[in-house]
Predict the 3D structure of the following.
Amino acid sequence: MKKRKKEVVTVVGLGYVGLPLAVLAAERGYRVFGVARNKRNINMLNRGVNTLKDDPSLDKAIAKKLIKATTSYEPIRKSDIVIVCVPTPIDEFYNPDLTPVISASKGIVRNLKKGQLVIIESTINPGVCEEVVLPILESTGKKVGKDFELAHCPERIDPGNVKWNVRNIPRCVGSVTKKGAVRAAKFYRSILSAEVRVMKSIKEAEATKIIENTFRDINIAYVNELAKSFDVLGIDVYDVIQGAATKPFAFMPHYPSVGVGGHCIAVDPYYLIERARKAGFDHKFLKLAREINNSMPSYTVEKLQSALNELGLPIKGTKIGILGLSYKANVGDMRESPSRKVIALLKDLGAKIEVFDPYFPEFSTTKSLQVCLQNSQAIILATNHREFLNLNPKELKKHKVKVVIDGKNAWNKEAIQNQGIVYKGIGR
Ligand code: SAJ
């Protein structure tokens, strides 16, 4: 029997979203090309070296050189499916920056072939596929539904999550045409061992991801506001949330902290805020949530200020150690990280800063946690990396640390206070 020709997939963007997807498609029998801008990463991948240090599960597959990586969009010419997994950041005014999606679409249209399926996985607000991507793909005269299909399948990778990964996370797909939705669902069902839900249209697919992450942002804002209120009420918000979380239904715990960072939660709400504003709707609630979460780095600095005041110490000239640069535990990613905002605020106030993050030796000012403690009068725990969690409070005492600001409410308050150290958490 004639061997079925392997369908060809090109993944544009080989970061924490594109690379696992490309590897999975190759493992599921597709011929896979990867397109990326970073020549160093391209060479490493073609030598079988995994470029995602936070995802060692890809090491073996990449060592087998299952995918062919290139900086050129050429492979699209011989592909049946093209999947865009490029970042969608925000600019300094918190406006969505679609440049990567636009340049990927322009790279695709130059190589677009009849019968291809183009899928956007990048997080975009409702309307972007039909108002931004589609005009580019049709700019050479090809028509969606006739010459090619366009679908959206929002990415759901959760960096550092060992339980949920690209293979087993359920997905939602939507398309401009019914046929496009059927083709996209068929592709994802061929590589995933998880539910694939077909959405009413491409807009609902775009909106799904945005509401997932705005849901998270508003819930974190809620507990961040509670933390501020419970600080003045003298209630331990962390203990209260843990108490509420014993309720087995209708409650989902979120936790206050030094701030909300990352390329998803801290960014995605601005997409919907901006898109709805253009259509005449003002998302007051989403904006307020963003305001509250963006206020947490300065709230953390205020907590430090009041703790130092108890000891008659100013921020100016005091040696302050920042533990953690990453936006969340056990990953090496500084995008929108609250730590960077805390450091900037402290530098403005004249503090002497030491930094240690085991994931960023190149940006750390000390080689180890011990040296950071040694050189600091006050410590801010900004990222709850596993390396910091078992720190013995006696170590803090030994290094003459006088103040601890627990930006992740991750340490034992009483144990630290028993060492005669001033402890302040966020809401406790
Ligand atoms: N954070 C809090 N309190 C919380 C939870 C998070 O302050 O209760 C902070 C974190 O410290 C971090 C930021 O919010 O700075 C984002 O945290 P996150 O756990 O949401 O981490 P992300 O940005 O990696 O979110 C990803 C998202 N995945 C995608 O968008 C594809 C998100 O949808 C997931 O819900 C989240 O992982 C997850 O569940 O861990």
About this structure: The chain has two domains: 8-201, 295-425. DSSP finds 16 helices and 13 strands in the chain. The mean pLDDT is 96.
